[in-house]
């Protein structure tokens, strides 16, 4: 039974014994057993409780019904009912010291990163971490927090890799050093493609350089009538993508293939080809922050040249794999939109949209094979 089911069961149980506020009383019991603030309980509605936790809840319910006492009136001499020590002050102090440690080691988002690390180790949501610091942090948990803080501060390992997962477009994704960390800017590419694909009956989509599968998985999830193929040259990356396909339950309409761009692509009737290729020029790559340069896969970041190799190659070859009227959609780097648009036009595409990111940078370029002419700039 999940937490929400147990809350409902407890409320019904106390109703049968004519408790005046059965929901409130059941919330008090369960928040006590789980050592959570009562107001945060419903944030964990799908939590699976252990047998021990369920047994404790059952014992409280029986004791209250037998003695006709509210939870707060139960005798505290019973060892099983004595509230656990409130360690809020000590835990807040530990969190603050962790923030200061990261800041001292030039971690830009020191507060955010420390909160994510604590939430990860304590198995709570970061947004309600501050309301869940009553429980004593064990020696094992403290050691784990210290290890993660050291890796973040001294080794400059990205937070996402430390946590082993990250959210993209509201969906959970496994991430590690085999794949690029999904960025918020790429959500703009997905959003624009989704708008177009929703207007196509049973669209067929190819994602080139799928990496973690962030684009492929999200398109397959958001456009369930689409058939999506994610391609990547890296076997390691594809292994991660397959895991993310399973995590997000899109195995029916998403497949992956090992392919160097179009080398293993057979079909020639795609409605859309999407790509977020390596676009950082080699010169800029050398100056990247250590979190990126030391840990994220180099070949997912740069083409070891001027940053345009894959845009040229995909623009040249994609017309053979697209239907007439099919779409080619790219994420592009800073100041690259105009050049990429030129490659697309040269190969028979009408550029129908250039879309800016949250910082005002032209981040997405979309072209249509034999489509309407003209460029729409969207902020």
TrEMBL record:
GO terms for biological process: methylation. It catalyses: L-glutaminyl-[peptide chain release factor] + S-adenosyl-L-methionine = N(5)-methyl-L-glutaminyl-[peptide chain release factor] + S-adenosyl-L-homocysteine + H(+). InterPro entries: DNA_methylase_N6_adenine_CS, HemK-like, N5-glutamine_MTase, PrmC_N, RF_methyltr_PrmC, SAM-dependent_MTases_sf, Small_mtfrase_dom. PROSITE patterns: N6_MTASE. S-adenosyl-L-methionine binds at residues 209-213, 232, 276. Keywords: Methyltransferase, S-adenosyl-L-methionine, Transferase. It comes from the Bacteria. It is an enzyme of class 2 (transferase). Methylates the class 1 translation termination release factors RF1/PrfA and RF2/PrfB on the glutamine residue of the universally conserved GGQ motif. This is Release factor glutamine methyltransferase. It comes from Candidatus Cetobacterium colombiensis.
């Amino acid at each position: 039974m999940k937490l929400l089911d147990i809350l409902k069961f407890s409320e019904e149980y106390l109703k049968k014994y004519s408790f005046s506020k059965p929901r409130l009383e059941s919330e008090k019991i369960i928040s006590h057993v789980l050592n959570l603030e009562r107001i945060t309980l419903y944030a964990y509605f799908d939590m699976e409780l252990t047998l021990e936790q369920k047994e404790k809840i059952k014992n409280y319910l029986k004791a209250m019904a037998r003695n006709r006492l509210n939870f707060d009136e139960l005798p505290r001499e019973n060892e099983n009912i004595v509230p656990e020590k409130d360690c809020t002050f000590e835990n807040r102090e530990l969190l603050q010291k962790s923030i200061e440690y990261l800041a001292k080691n030039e971690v830009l988002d020191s507060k955010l990163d420390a909160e994510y690390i604590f939430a990860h180790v304590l198995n709570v949501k970061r947004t309600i971490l501050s309301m869940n610091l009553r429980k004593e942090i064990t020696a094992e948990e403290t050691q784990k927090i210290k290890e993660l803080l050291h890796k973040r501060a001294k080794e400059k390992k990205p937070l996402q890799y430390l946590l082993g997962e990250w959210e993209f477009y509201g969906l959970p994704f496994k991430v590690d050093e085999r794949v690029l960390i999904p960025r918020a800017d790429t959500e703009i590419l997905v959003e624009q493609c989704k708008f177009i694909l929703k207007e196509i009956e049973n669209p067929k989509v190819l994602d080139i350089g799928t990496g973690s599968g962030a684009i492929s998985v999200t398109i397959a999830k958001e456009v369930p009538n689409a058939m999506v193929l994610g391609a990547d040259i890296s076997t390691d990356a594809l292994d991660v993508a397959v895991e993310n396909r399973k995590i997000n339950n899109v195995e029916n309409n998403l497949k992956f293939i090992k392919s160097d761009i179009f080398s293993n692509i057979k079909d020639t009737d795609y409605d859309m080809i999407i790509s977020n290729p390596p676009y950082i020029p080699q010169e800029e790559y050398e100056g990247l922050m250590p979190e990126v340069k030391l840990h994220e896969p180099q070949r997912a970041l740069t083409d070891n040249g001027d940053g345009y190799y894959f845009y040229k190659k995909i623009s040249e070859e994609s017309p053979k794999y697209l239907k007439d009227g099919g779409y080619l959609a790219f994420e592009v780097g800073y100041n690259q939109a105009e050049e990429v648009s030129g490659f697309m036009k040269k190969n028979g595409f009408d550029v129908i949209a250039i879309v800016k990111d949250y910082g005002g940078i032209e981040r997405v370029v979309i072209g249509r094979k034999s489509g309407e002419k003209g460029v729409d700039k969207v902020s």
